[in-house]
Design brief:
With 171 residues, the protein is of the alpha+beta class. The chain is built from 3 helices and 6 strands.
Length: 171
Amino acid sequence: MVWARTRLLIWDYIFEPVKQIRISYVGRNPDRFYRKVNELVRTTFNVPESYVQEKDYTWEKIRETERFDVGWEVNKVLDTFSYITVEIDLRGFVTEGEGRATIIIKPRLITEYPQDTIWQQSIFYEMLRRVWHKAFYHHRRMEYLNMGKELVVSFESSLKHFAEALRAGEI
C-alpha cells in the first residue's frame, strides 16, 4: 500500500461484474460462523493479525434470541503498488439453537500510484507511468487478479463445507 496524500487508485472487482458473494445458512448454531470466519481469514489469505481489522461488532441478546452483525476488512499486500482488500460481513440470529446466518464477501484488487510531488503530478511522469503500466505491470496485475480469485474461491468453499458439516451435525 502506498502511503501518500494524493494518489491514483485503480480498483478491480475480483469477479467482474459480480461485486459481492452471498452465502446463506439456515439451521443449527449459525453463531459458530464467527469463529470459523475468523480462523479461515488468517489461514486462507495468509495475512498477519494486523492486516485483519474487525470493523463492526454487534452481538446482542434479547430474551432467547441472539442477533449478531460482524464486519471484517482483510488487506493482503502484494507489492509496493497493489493489494487485495476483502470485506466480509456476517449477520444473523439464533433462537434456541436454530437460526440464520448470511455471509457477504466483497473482494477487490486495488493499485495505488502516489501523486504527491511535482514530478509525480507532471504530464511526463504520467506518460511514463502509463507506458510502464501497460507494458510491464498490467500482466502482473492480471496474475494478482487470478491469485485473488483462487483465494476467495478457497475461502468460499471452506465456508460452504463448514455449513454442510454444521447442518449434518458433524460439528
